[in-house]
Amino acid sequence: MTESSESATGRGGAPRAAGHREPEARGKGFDLAKLLAERGGERYELHTAHLNHQLPRMLRTIGFDKVYERAEGAYFWDAEGNDYLDMLAGFGVMGLGRHHPVVREALHDVLDASLADLTRFDCQPLPGLLAEKLLTHSPHLDRVFFGNSGTEAVETALKFARYATGRPRILYCSHAFHGLTTGSLSVNGEAGFRDGFAPLLPDTALALGDLDGLERELRRGDVAGFVVEPIQGKGVRATPPGFLRAAQELLHRHKALLIADEVQTGLGRTGDFYAYQHEEGVEPDLVCVAKALSGGYVPVGATLGKDWIFRKVYSSMDRVLVHSASFGSNAQAMAAGLAVLSVIEDEGIVANAKATGDLLRSRLAALVDRYEFLSEVRGRGLMIGIEFGRPASIGLRGRWTMLQAARKGLFAQMVVVPLLQRHRILTQVSGDELEVIKLIPPLTIGEKEVDRFVTAFTAVMDDAHKGGGLMWDFGRTLVKQAIANR
Fold first, then answer.
1. Mean predicted lDDT score pLDDT of the chain
2. How many CA atoms lie within 13 A of 80 on its CB side?
3. pLDDT (tens digit, 9 = 90+) per residue, 199-227?
């Protein structure tokens, strides 16, 4: 390629946009690589001094204060070159793993295009194209609102449901998450997140699967909608078979809306594009997605809904900005989302999540009869919960009781820590005071990663059932810490 022809093209030979200028040489004021080289080693001290000071304290307590130098796909590497298997995926954000080349290239391309982004008074093509592509996976829905996060997607759904129905109250499930901003916190079913932030919106919790309770509340005539995670992140609890379809029929009979929170479960996580698609005939009125749509790069959230709901909210030109987001629909987020959906389709991500998830879940379930501490393995696709419970033998039961008396959830933490420290596998306890580990790895993992996790998990469970050693020494440390925090 000649110099003149190269100057007229962008990355990959694409034509430059009209009026495009190459960036000027960077001044001396900011050099990211130099800054990280000079100050990167201060990461934990900087967090302690200027951010949430409890985060580095917690990480040091459980031995998670690692220094990761780089990441790719389902792996991290430290400065010594040791690899770590990521079975957490940034709480589900890294659905395609870290730094997927297609998403990365799309972001380079959109930056190189120098688009006239966020003018606020034009209609850029990328939001329309991403909405169109999302709706092909949601054929019963018609329109999309783009925000910046999962909690914003839920906030949008709550506002739209209230306005469209003219009713004030939203129903939700005990132990649901949904987000931490004030509106979504009002439908968060976990007291630990809600405590100290009242007053919240006057919404009502139901037990997961409680159709009688749902019907009772609907008869009061003030319910705008029911928001539900098809599989709850806390504890990895799925809605009972037939529940979503029956709830949908009850809601529509009482002129209320079904809102599916697919922020963590959507985009292939459970082996279908949406988790609600596991149940035939379920067509939510509003669907919330986020996390994996970002490609792990640019925050994005989306609320998909039926045409009549959007037409009620945006009922006139006077109401054109009645609900908006300053950074919603920005070009970088839209390009990332389009690239993510392209990869999901081109690389068979949904089918891989189902096949690999079935393999991992079946191999873990086969261990239930082998280990007294192992109670149940459940989930769908690559969203798996491993629950621990009270053992039968007297010696192990005594140790379990000791941990439970100090604080529920300590045994699961005792499993998570050696998985990282000894086997270099990152996992998480599924919720406060829960004896459940949640696995939500990148949807791109395969049999190699399944083998590595099952081998490591088996070794940790073997240690736990020996009743002594480093694992139980760490358990005593957790007990002391839990008692000190009371």
1. 90
2. 5
3. 888 788 999 999 999 999 999 999 999 99
Structure-token pair, residue 472 = 């139980």
Cα distance between residue 266 and residue 247, in whole Å: 20
Please enumerate in sequence order all residues whose Cβ is within 8 A of that of 398, keeping only pairs 6 or more positions apart, or say none: none
What's the CA gap between 50 and 434, in Å, rounded? 30
Q: How far apart are the first and last CA of the chain?
A: 69
Rounded to the nearest 10°, the torsion over CA 338, 341, 347, 353 is 150
The answer to whether the beta carbons of residues 416 and 437 sit under 8 Å apart is yes
434 and 344 Cβ atoms separated by less than 8 Å: no
pTM equals 0.90
Predicted pLDDT at 228: 97
pLDDT digits (tens, 9 = 90+) for 19-71: 444 555 555 689 999 999 999 999 999 999 999 999 999 888 888 889 999 99
Q: Find out whether 93 and 299 touch, Cβ atoms under 8 Å.
A: no
Indicate the SS3 state at residue 89. helix
Measure the CA–CA gap between 107 and 336, rounded to whole angstroms.
Answer: 6
For residues 427-458, b (16+ Cβ closer than 10 Å) or e, as one string? bbbbbeebbbbbbbbbbbbeeebbebbbebbe
Cα atoms in the Cβ-side hemisphere of radius 13 Å centred on 129: 15
Distance, in Å, from the CA atom of 341 to the CA atom of 345, rounded to the nearest integer, reads: 6
Q: Do 131 and 142 meet the contact criterion of CB atoms below 8 Å apart? A: no
